[in-house]
């Protein structure tokens, strides 16, 4: 625990800051259903999956570069400086977005500027989520570590819910520029987050750079002692969250728009209900952590998800209203594989002096690969095999996640010895 500041104050400042910055990130993502119509040429509207893929991937395409930058900086200067810097960058991008002319006003220049802002915003969020996670991991010890990180994760989901609600109400007015209000609010909130996080002290573990060797962590297990193998396992873990999130929030929204002809406002309302259930699920999982080991919870959820995954394409093909789509979305957000609540065990397997760089790069590369393959892959595979393309993507992701969980269970047992 950082010296001179209470547990309660530390987690409060971190959670508020994470909420404020993720509010901005989710605002960009969930308003895409509306913003794509304002910032892309009208003659591309016949292929909404492709436009969505381009817009969605723009947020994550430069994350590996940002991961290298923020990771190296965080491993040299500390975790708290990156947390504040990323919030400040997010504030600036939202401020510019709130005043950006549309395609109708300045043509293709608006498209380029829109994509550039999404790239910068996605890069800044890279520094936020990883630095906040590592700050918690290095500030608390198990089992409190799991509880504190889950609280931060709850703030992320709550930010998603609030951003969707703000986007919903911003599009409820007839004024075509009402969406700009949401980004003005987002800019202000990110600035407040940056200011609040400047008061955080550096983590104790980073300050003393207490480094355990891989040999002491994993004993005589030669395979787990290989850093490259642990990075591969961590990639398999991190592939899961963006894949399930894409299908729950983005792909299902496209189905609602193209197949059921829902408006942007109706889709935002649907996703707000999903985010509310997602928030309740996170709170429930946090409670379960007091009863069971987090890695056991993850394995149990994922094993339940496997047979449900096989049913999802059939359910989508038979979906005739928003309620059937919502049921599919709930399966994805509650049972779909994701690293929370066991993230500490994954991150702690890397040395302190290289932890932020390694975790940041894995986090960034996993997002780029998954979002590019998933969004563009679905845009083309959907034309050939329809909704069954989901199995081609989520099937390997889920099995890879289960394999990595088994190996990290061995790592976790060595860490607690």
UniProtKB/TrEMBL annotation:
Pfam families membership: MFS_1
Gene3D superfamilies in alphabetical order: MFS general substrate transporter like domains
Cell compartments where the protein resides: Cell inner membrane
Keyword check for Transmembrane: yes
Membrane-spanning ranges: 12-29, 49-70, 82-100, 112-135, 147-169, 181-200, 231-256, 268-290, 297-316, 361-382, 388-405
Key words of the record: Cell membrane, Membrane, Transmembrane, Transmembrane helix, Transport
Residues in Major facilitator superfamily (MFS) profile domain copies: 10-417
Membrane topology type: Multi-pass membrane protein
Major location category of this protein: membrane
Matches recorded under InterPro entries: MFS (IPR011701), MFS_dom (IPR020846), MFS_trans_sf (IPR036259)
UniProt keyword Phosphoprotein, yes or no: no
PANTHER family attached to this UniProt entry: SHIKIMATE TRANSPORTER
Protein name, as recorded: MFS transporter
């Amino acid at each position: 625990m950082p010296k001179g500041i209470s547990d309660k104050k530390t987690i409060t400042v971190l959670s508020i800051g994470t909420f404020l910055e993720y509010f901005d990130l989710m605002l960009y993502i969930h308003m895409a259903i509306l913003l794509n119509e304002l910032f892309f040429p009208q003659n591309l509207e016949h292929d909404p999956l492709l436009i969505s893929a381009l817009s969605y991937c723009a947020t994550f395409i430069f994350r590996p570069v940002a991961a290298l930058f923020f990771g190296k900086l965080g491993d040299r200067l500390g975790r708290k400086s990156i947390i504040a810097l990323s919030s400040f960058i997010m504030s600036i991008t939202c401020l510019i977005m709130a005043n950006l002319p549309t395609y109708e006003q300045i043509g293709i220049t608006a498209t380029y500027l829109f994509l550039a802002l999404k790239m910068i915003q996605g890069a800044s969020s890279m520094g936020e989520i990883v630095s906040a996670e590592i700050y918690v991991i290095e500030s608390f010890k198990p089992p409190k570590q799991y509880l504190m990180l889950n609280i931060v994760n709850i703030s992320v989901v709550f930010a998603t819910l609030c951003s969707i609600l703000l986007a919903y109400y911003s599009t409820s007015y007839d004024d075509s520029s009402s969406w700009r209000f949401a980004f003005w609010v987002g800019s202000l909130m990110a600035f407040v987050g940056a200011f609040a996080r400047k008061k955080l002290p550096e983590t104790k573990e980073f300050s003393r750079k207490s480094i355990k060797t891989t040999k002491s962590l994993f004993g005589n297990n030669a395979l787990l002692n290989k850093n490259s193998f642990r990075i591969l396992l961590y990639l398999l873990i991190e592939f899961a969250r963006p894949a399930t999130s894409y299908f729950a929030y983005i792909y299902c929204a496209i189905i609602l728009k193209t197949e059921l002809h829902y408006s942007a406002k109706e889709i935002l309302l649907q996703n707000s209900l999903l985010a509310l259930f997602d928030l309740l699920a996170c709170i429930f999982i946090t409670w379960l952590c007091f009863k069971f080991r987090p890695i056991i919870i993850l394995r149990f959820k994922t094993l339940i998800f496997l047979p449900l995954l096989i049913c999802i394409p059939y359910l989508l093909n038979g979906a005739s209203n928003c309620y059937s789509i919502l049921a599919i979305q709930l399966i994805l957000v509650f049972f779909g594989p994701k690293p929370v609540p066991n993230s500490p065990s994954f991150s702690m397997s890397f040395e302190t002096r290289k932890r932020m760089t390694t975790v940041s790069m894995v986090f960034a590369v996993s997002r780029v690969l998954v979002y590019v393959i998933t969004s563009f892959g679905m845009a083309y595979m959907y034309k050939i095999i329809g909704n069954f393309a989901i199995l081609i993507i989520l099937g390997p992701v889920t099995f890879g996640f289960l394999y990595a969980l088994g190996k990290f269970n061995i790592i976790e047992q060595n860490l607690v010895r």
